[in-house]
Structure formats: structure tokens, C-alpha cells
Amino acid sequence: MRKRETIRRTTAKEVAAAAGLSKWTVIRAFTPGSSITEESKRRVMEAAAALNYSPNLLARSLATNSTRQVAVFVDDFRNPQKLPFLETLTDRLQAAGLVAMLININNHFDHVHALLHADQRQVDAVILFGTAFRDETLTDRQLGNGMPPMFVLARDSQIDGVPAVVCDAELALRDIVNHLHERGYRRPGFMSGATALSTALRRRQHFTDFWAEKGVSEIELLSAEKYSAEAGAESVRNYLSQMAPADRIDVLMCENDILALGAIDEIRGRHGLRVPEDIAIVGFDNYELGGSSAYSLTTYEQPRHEMVEAIIGMIVGTIEAETVTLPGKLIIRGST
Amino acid sequence: MRKRETIRRTTAKEVAAAAGLSKWTVIRAFTPGSSITEESKRRVMEAAAALNYSPNLLARSLATNSTRQVAVFVDDFRNPQKLPFLETLTDRLQAAGLVAMLININNHFDHVHALLHADQRQVDAVILFGTAFRDETLTDRQLGNGMPPMFVLARDSQIDGVPAVVCDAELALRDIVNHLHERGYRRPGFMSGATALSTALRRRQHFTDFWAEKGVSEIELLSAEKYSAEAGAESVRNYLSQMAPADRIDVLMCENDILALGAIDEIRGRHGLRVPEDIAIVGFDNYELGGSSAYSLTTYEQPRHEMVEAIIGMIVGTIEAETVTLPGKLIIRGST
DNA sequence: TTGTATGCGTTATCAC
DNA sequence: GTGATAACGCATACAA
């Protein structure tokens, strides 16, 4: 690793010497709201500009005990939804004077490892983005003793005392089921991707419950092996091949848009059926491609900006750090 | 911002006191390869474990003048290709003991701002991922004086002395054109998304050149307003509406897969034409959905892992920091 | 308003 | 092998 010593930055001390003042006066010039003469400040800024000086944030962090860095844990880069979320998240963090450390949680680098590392780096907070610890992985000791405050984004928190920001799944599924019921669908199916996830289970449960309220107690359950278009297509293929046309579902809700797109392709392509006339499709997440005229996928959009603002509010302390549930938006298009 | 002083970490000094040794001995216990007795090390580690101690990387960075942090600049979160790249990049950085600071370059936070900020944070390097400065934005002064070393990933470098890692566009387009020519296509078109980008211009130029070598000098040029499926569809729609069937192109190369997917939908859906029989389609980037049976898009895959390894090699100094051009892979599917 | 001393937690260097 | 001194660059508290 090429060290930076070869290209030393100028320090406050050097600026002070150039300006004929003490280094503390230089510090003051760069500290908003501190008491300093206009004249001194001008002289400092002049010398600073000449020497190309700017404060060393590393040293500042060490002295203030605050790095203004936030670790963001991500463990599923397959979900395209991560990208717009990362865009919003980094943008709002930056607006708040914070910066994101992107941590990839995978086989080489697990949650505990990452948390310990983030702690060593003195981050001000950790965002578990779509990720959660299993309860067992962390001892109370590790959680209690000096770990940075943690927040869960877009996923239920599994740990007591760790707040989360989530999209209101109950409201979402209620809106969806109401919409489908109004359109006259009565034989619903639900395709899940990875049933181990609590968010996934929850969506399915709400879907089932609200249909039950409508008097529909039988929900066809499909499952895809993973969250990919191919897996969604395969799941539908299996289902259609073993089901007589008369007994088929008339609407399929997929756990996310990727599965839904795969399902639509399969239904139209290989089976020559129509969407929504033969089978209607609903997705989740409002992934961009679903909005194109070819798919026109009815879906549900998570309130990305509000979720991000909420979690940042928690981090900077303007919002009480308790779990926040925010309403999203049903987006009705041609697939239903 | 909640400071961390409330939850103070234990320091080497405290461990030293508990172990009855000096703090320097504690440091040695945590420094691989330093000379220390087995006995001392054992005592230190015992005390450290009891007090839950781990070294403060912030202080270490200040002392060693190396943060082992790398700033990654991203300015286009619309391109889904960013996500798998980010996955690979973070994974390999972490494997090298580095960590990524994800910086969102946008209207609120431009390149210069970001570079100055990264410099203040003392990052060991800056990766311009798919991004480039315009030549004018940086003065020689800013570039020369103590800025962290910069590297461009997946884009041509615009600045002298800033190395880049790119996919070999010449090879890619040669392979593509050869393939299309072999298949018998003779009336090629090229759809570009944002012609301002140098990478984009380059692809188009190579496409034109290689067709010229085959004796085909006329290339139909379509342009989409942005890199979205909708824009790709619209571009094709305009083209088809103003072109007599007999004069149509027989193959369309799109600058990336998103445009290509939109084009396919439009060609099949609204115009009832077949792919590849009426018009063949080629994309670029091997975006996941293109591989699904519905699209079966012929495309070109950038050598993601090799590119990432190369740029990390440059950063840690195992590879000479000169621009590296790596060969990708043509992926032939049903759309041609 | 300005200058001084001290601390943040580590590493590098030298003496023992 | 171990302890001590200095240094990294800035912030805080206090004195002038």
C-alpha cells in the first residue's frame, strides 16, 4: 500500500507560521461560530488558500470522538432494488454531512466480523440494509459494550433495542388485496422467493389474511428458488404444467418484481396466455423495467425517500430511535 | 449526532494496566511479527479479552498515515450494472484489507467537492467508477498537491497520469461484428444512449469501423434519450414508423442491455415482428434479465472480476499503475 | 480575542 | 524483549 507520507498535506501549524499567528487561531478560522477577528480570519484564510490547506478529518475524528461515517451492511446484491436505495441513502447521508462505508456481508466477511470492524473504525452508526443478524450470532456482550448504534433498514429488526425502518407490509397487502378483489379476481396465488426471510413470510401472511377477510380462504402457494426472473418463470412453469386450466388461479402476487417479470414472460411466451385476462400479475418494489409498456406491471412502491430520511433522523438524533413503519404506494398498471 | 464518548472503548493503556505490562507491549501483542514473549502475549490477550479490547483503527491511521479506506465515486445509479460491480469491488477490497467509502456524485455533490472531501478524510485512493472529470474542472494544483491517487474503473481516463481499467472495446466490437457477419446480417444499426460519453462514442466508432472492413459502410444510427428500456423502445418505435419494411435494418446493436430489452419489447409487442428473424438484437453488459428465456439476448460481458482485481492491484501497488485493457466475452443467445 | 497546555489512541524510534 | 519518548493533527479547557 502506497502510503501518503510522500505527499504530505499542509497542517494548521504551517498555515499559522505563514500567517504569523498561532495554530489555534487557524483552527478557529475553520470552526464555524468560534470567536475570531475578521482580520485574523482573513489572514488565516489567505495563508490557507496559498498553502492549499484543509483540516484533516482523521485527526478531527480522533479528537472529537466522532467520525461522521456510517457503515452500511449489505448482503444481497442480487436485488436490483438495492441500487436506488443506495443512491438515496448516500445522497441523504452526504446532505447530513455523513458518509457511507459500504460493507459487503458474505461468506468471507460475516455480520459479526463486519460489526467488529466497523466498531474498530469508530463509525458513528451501522445501518443493516435489508440484512439482519440471526439472534444467536451476537452475544449480549458484543452488543452491549461500546458497539456503535445499529439500525435496520427495509427489514424487520430481529434484535431487541435495535430499531428498524420498514415499509408497512400490512397496509401494502391490504391495498393490494382490495384492488384485486375490486377487479373481480377470486382465485389468488402467491409466489415467494426465499421463505426464510421474515419480511417475506409477513407479506404472505398478510396476503392470506386479507383474502380470508374477503371470504377467500384458499391461496395457491408457489415458490421460486431464488429472486431471479428465471426462477420466477420456472415456478410458474411447474405450476401451469400440473394444473388443469379450469382450476387455475386468476391472479398471482409475486414477492418482488423480478419474480413477476419472469412469471409474465413465462405465461405469455411459453404458454400463450394473456396477462391479465388469463392470469393477472402483481409484483413488489416498482422496479424500473416493470413500468415499461411491455410489462406494465402492477406493483407496490416502498417509500424510499421517507424511509431513508427516517433512518438518518434516527442516526443524527432528530427522531426518536424506535421502529418506524411507513406507508408505500400501490401502483396500478395493466397487468391487473 | 450522538457522540461515542458515552460508550468509551477500552484502550491499550487500560489493557496494559490490567496485564501489568506497558502499553507498548500490548501494541506488540496486536502487531503480527513483532518481538514479544509467548508469556507476555498470553497475558495481554487474556486481559484484552476480559476488557473486550481491540485496536482503534482511527488512531492507527493517524499514526501510520494510511487509512486503508478507498473512496468510490459513482454518478449513475440508473445503470443496473453498477450493482454487481459494487459487489465484486467491495468483496475484493475487503479481502485486501481495504474498505469502500461510497460517494454519490450528483448535483449536490460534484466531483471536485467529493475529491476534496475524500482527501480530507485521508483515503488511500479514489476510484472513479464509471465516472470521469471533465478536463476543465480540476486545476493542476488540485490534482498535483497531495491529492490521493486516482483510478478510473470501467471508463476511459480523461486525465493524464490517471490510469484506468477498461473492457477492451475494440476486441468486443470486433467479436460482435464478426459474429453478426457470420450469421449473415448485412444491414446493421446502432443505438446509442448518451453520445456525450466517450466510452459510448468509442463503441459506436469501432462498430462502424469493423463493418466497414466487411464492406458495409452504411450504419443506421438510432439514439435513445437515456439508458432506460422505455427510451430504447421509443427510439425503435420512431425508427420503424418512418422506415419502409424493405429498407429496414436486419440487426440492431444497442449500447447496453437495458436499451436492448426495451427494443425487443417494442419490436415484438407493438410491431408484431420477430427477433431475430425480422430484426436481430445485440446488447452490452450481460444484464441478468437478458439471459431469461423470454429475451435470450445476445450480449457482451465485461470481465468484472479481472477488472476489479486489476484496479485493486494498482491501488496496493502490485500492478504497475498504467491503463489496463481487458478482454470480455461475447455471449451468444437467441436474439441473433 | 488570542495563546498555552493537555489529551485523543496509536505507531515509530531509540535506549535499556 | 521491554519500557520510554516523540509524533500524528486537531480539539478542548483554561489562562492571559
Set down the secondary structure blueprint:
The structure is a homodimer of 336-residue chains.
Chain A lengths: L11 H8 L3 H7 L8 H14 L5 H8 L4 E6 L7 H14 L3 E6 L6 H10 L4 E5 L10 H5 L5 E4 L10 E4 L1 H14 L5 E5 L5 H16 L6 E4 L5 H13 L9 E4 L2 H13 L10 E3 L16 E3 L2 H13 L7 E3 L2 E3 L5
Chain A binds a DNA duplex (16 and 16 nucleotides) through α2 and α4.
Describe it.
2 copies of one chain form a homodimer. By secondary structure, chain A is an alpha/beta fold. Chain A has 3 domains: 12-64, lambda repressor-like DNA-binding domains (434 Repressor (Amino-terminal Domain)); 69-167 and 305-327, Response regulator (Rossmann fold, 3-Layer(aba) Sandwich); 169-302, Response regulator (Rossmann fold, 3-Layer(aba) Sandwich), CATH 3.40.50. Chain A has helices at 12-19, 23-29, 38-51, 57-64, 82-95, 111-120, 140-144, 169-182, 198-213, 229-241, 257-269, 304-316, and strands at residues 69-74, 99-104, 125-129, 150-153, 164-167, 188-192, 220-223, 251-254, 280-282, 299-301, 324-326, 329-331. Chain A has a 6-stranded parallel beta sheet with strand order 2-1-3-4-5-11, sandwiched between helices. A 4-stranded parallel beta sheet of chain A has the order 7-6-8-9, with helices on both faces. The first copy, chain A, has a two-stranded antiparallel sheet with strand order 10-12. In chain A, α1 packs across α2, α1 crosses α3 and α8 (169-182) crosses α9 (198-213). The longest helix of chain A has 16 residues, at 198-213. The radius of gyration of chain A is 26 Å and the shape is elongated. The mean pLDDT of chain A is 90. Chains A and B meet through α4, α5, β2, α6 and α10 of A and α4, α5, β2, α6 and α10 of B. β2 (99-104) of chain A pairs antiparallel with β2 of chain B, so a sheet runs across the interface. Chain A binds a DNA duplex (16 and 16 nucleotides) through α2 and α4.
